[in-house]
Write a structure and sequence with these properties.
The complex is a heterodimer of chains A (about 100) and B (about 400). With about 100 residues, chain A is an alpha+beta fold. Helices cover about 10% and strands about 15% of the residues of chain A. Chain A has a domain of about 70 residues: Alpha-Beta Plaits, CATH 3.30.70. The radius of gyration of chain A is 17 Å and the shape is elongated. In chain B, the strands form three sheets. Chain B has a seven-stranded mixed β-sheet with strand order 3-2-4-5-7-6-12, sandwiched between helices. A six-stranded mixed β-sheet of chain B has the order 9-11-10-13-14-15, with helices on both faces. A two-stranded antiparallel sheet of chain B has the order 1-8. In chain B, helix 7 links the parallel strand 6 and strand 7. Classes of the chains: A alpha+beta (about 100), B alpha/beta (about 400). The interface between A and B is medium-sized, with 16 and 24 residues.
Chain lengths: ~100, ~400
């Protein structure tokens, strides 16, 4: 069954007790829309320790097949935690264009 | 056959919860409710009631524990009063909007300051918009019966909401009255085991109490409002079935010698019994007078109220709470708004009394009615009269 987005749901669609019956629905929420700056990686300094991946509060960072890490901009809210925690200064926060 | 026993009303509430075979009691003692949870603690300790008893550290925690217990489908009971109810405040909304069935007895009490442990309806009025079903009671038997009904209503698959049973602090909670304690098999027949259809289950994970951005919050509230308003049918049906088994009938709005009366007094809670005596006395004196008693406070029974007062010219609404800075007692405001758009309606006067445990006698209600009649004749609707206040 196709899942309705929040803006399509009418009051009659609300489940009893406002329960969300579908697991993992938070994945549909684009926290990336909150971002005013974005992390940029200079992988030449990266030792693949994975700390950025562990600390990201939105689970926006995933490891790539080559072992380096990449940010999913749909979720990255630009908090800068990854840049703060990276022990090798791989990550720089740069303002969003526009 | 049910036994008639002389019992303190608070203890009878404990007995009702025991007969309902509650699974979880989470409560914190507070006057004038303490005897209820003390009695339940005793029943659990001596093995008469097989229930989990959670002696929490505050009312906020009591209500929070009840949320969790109801969410796993356990039959849940608690009780509180006054400041305790206010400390629960934010959690009360959660219980209702997450549709977690549970029953709470509230021994209605005044609010500080000045500190008062005595009865009035200030605590109720502060939680009136929390989304709970709220029922008032007038005597010990009604409290006992209403606790049983409250479980049945709360757990009705068409309802699934928390229910408050209001009883006047001290005036009811501490009275020893003859009460018919129902037999276990009758109660079992009336109250089937609780099957919460949404009970937390690791095999079927759900999110309860999720986050709602502006795009969906209004829809959630509208759904809640329509649902709560629609529970009246199930409440009336429960009371009908209660009557067919136990022979005692309850209605959302009840009247006493009100048929065709030009002047009506309206009360809520135990003071209604005193008011009935006043009506008898005034009727004997040849006065055209009757009484309307509000039993169901939430959802508000607008249709039944309109029907009950349709022939009256004057309606004197007696409130045991003051809505500070408002233009009438809280019940009166609601009654006025329920009648305002009608072509033909009585003039409504607001008289407040019985605050912080102050008694109102049979003669007192006669005075209240006379004050109300005078107020209703005036054009001004702004006046509030607080009965019996010394200059
Ligand atoms: S900026 Fe914040 S949200 Fe974005 S990837 Fe780094 S830690 Fe995650
Ligand atoms: S924390 Fe820094 S060094 Fe470690 S994996 Fe992330 S980017 Fe590379």
């Amino acid at each position: 069954m196709a899942v309705k987005s929040e803006s399509e749901l009418g009051w009659k669609d609300i489940e009893t007790g406002c329960i969300v019956t579908e697991a993992g629905s938070a994945a549909q929420y684009p926290t990336g829309g909150w971002r005013s700056q974005k992390p940029e990686y200079d992988n030449s300094k990266c030792n693949k320790c994975g700390l950025c991946y562990i600390y990201c509060p939105d689970c926006s960072i995933t490891q790539q097949p080559d072992g380096f890490y990449k940010v999913d901009m749909f979720y990255c809210k630009g908090c800068g935690i990854c840049a703060k925690e990276c022990p090798r200064d791989v990550i720089t926060m740069v303002p969003e264009a526009g | 056959m049910a036994k008639r026993v002389g019992m303190e009303v608070s203890l009878a509430i404990g007995e009702a919860a025991k007969l309902a075979d509650v699974d979880v009691v989470a409560a914190y003692p507070i006057t004038p409710q303490t005897h209820i949870v003390e009695h339940l603690a005793e029943l659990v300790a001596n093995g008469e009631l097989k229930s989990a008893y959670i002696p929490v550290e505050s009312e906020h925690s009591a209500m929070s524990a009840c949320l969790g217990s109801a969410a796993v489908g356990a039959r849940t009971f608690t009780a509180t009063a006054g400041q305790g109810l206010e400390l629960m405040h934010e959690v009360l909304y959660v219980a209702a909007s997450m549709q977690l069935p549970m029953v709470m007895a509230v021994a209605n009490r005044a609010l500080s300051a000045p500190l008062s442990v005595w009865g009035d309806h200030s605590d109720v009025m502060a939680v009136r918009d929390t989304g709970w079903i709220q029922i008032f009671t007038e005597n010990g038997q009604e409290v006992f019966d209403t606790v049983l009904c409250a479980f049945r209503i709360a757990e009705d698959p068409k309802v699934l909401l928390p229910v408050m049973v209001h009883l006047d602090g001290f005036h009811l909670s501490h009275m020893i009255e003859p009460i018919l304690i129902s037999e276990e098999d009758e109660v079992k027949r009336f109250l089937p085991p609780f099957k919460y259809p949404l009970a937390l289950d690791p095999k079927k994970p759900v999110t309860m109490g999720a986050f709602a951005p502006p795009v969906i919050y209004s829809e959630a509230r509208k759904a809640q409002e329509v649902h709560l308003a629609g529970t009246k049918e199930a409440i009336v049906k429960c009371w009908d079935e209660f009557a067919s088994i136990f022979g005692r009938r309850y209605l959302p709005v009840e009247t006493y010698r009100a048929e065709g009366a030009k002047t009506l007094l309206m009360t809520m809670g135990s003071f209604s019994e005193t008011a009935m005596e006043t009506i008898d006395k005034m009727r004997a004196d040849g006065k055209d007078i009757g009484l309307v008693r509000l039993r169901l406070w939430r959802p508000f029974p607008t249709t039944e109220l309109r029907q009950a007062v349709k022939d009256a010219e004057t309606l004197v609404v007696f409130d045991r709470a003051i809505s500070l800075g408002s233009q009438a007692g809280p019940v009166c405001s609601e009654v006025r708004s329920a009648l305002y758009n009608l072509e033909k309606k009585p003039r409504v006067a607001s008289v407040i009394g019985g605050l912080g445990g102050r008694d109102v006698t049979v003669a007192g209600f006669e005075e209240i009615i006379n004050i109300g009649i005078k107020m209703a004749k005036k054009e001004s609707q702004q006046e509030i009269e607080i009965f019996g206040v010394r200059e």
